[in-house]
Amino acid sequence: MTLEQLRVFVAIAEREHMTRAAAALHLAQSAASATVASLEAEYGVKLFDRVGRTIRLTPQGAVLLDEARAVLLQADQVRRRMESLVAS
Amino acid sequence: MTLEQLRVFVAIAEREHMTRAAAALHLAQSAASATVASLEAEYGVKLFDRVGRTIRLTPQGAVLLDEARAVLLQADQVRRRMESLVAS
DNA sequence: TGAGGTTACGCCTATCGTAATAATG
DNA sequence: CATTATTACGATAGGCGTAACCTCA
To answer: How sure is the predictor about A86, in pLDDT bands with cuts at 50, 70 and 90?
Structure first.
């Protein structure tokens, strides 16, 4: 699990739309798709239901969404803390 | 910033000893050294003082140590949560 | 039939380990 | 002179984009 995987997952989950999430992340659709696939494979959990040409969060995906946001928030706090230390 | 960078940094910081940390992580010394260097470069912050052939946490490094531990703890919680979902 | 997700594939960069170097206790 | 961190360097794996595809409204 990497922060990058979580960032991609959250962007897609919030939109339930891979193309728009990929665009927002300046990433090709295929890369976003592969990232989600790698997360699903890593934990053996299906994060999205593929319904026709749309995707929808599974209950398991919804759990991850909450947790992933928390990690990303804390990681961002670390980043800001580090950047504030440059001055000192 | 990646979780892997933080893991390596914490292992070194806790021991103030790169060789032993690298061994504990099943990593070559050089890789551990490069990882710290990449973190320091990324934020322009010196994390360790190189005193002779020993290393010692800087005050900035001590700050990161606390924050990094928190992120890693939360990341581990996500991992455990995901693993608990496999059953469901 | 066109919009959107997946798969195939080649490329490229980041990271690794080995080995050489520097420093010091 | 043995130990430890850094630097150099070639090799490899992981992640990216392009493009072809499959499916469905």
So the answer is: confident
Residue-wise pLDDT tens digits, A38-70: 999 999 999 999 998 899 999 999 999 999 999
How far lies B21's CA from each of A45, A49, B7, B12, B63, in Å? 33, 42, 10, 5, 19
Closest CA–CA distance from residue B85 to any residue of chain A (Å): 7
Residue B82 forms contact with A (CB below 8 Å): yes
| Cβ neighbours of B49 (radius 10 Å) | 12
Q: Which nucleotides of C are covered by protein (CB under 7 A)?
A: 2-9, 15-19, 22-25
pLDDT at B73: 98
Show the tokens assigned to A28. 């090709």
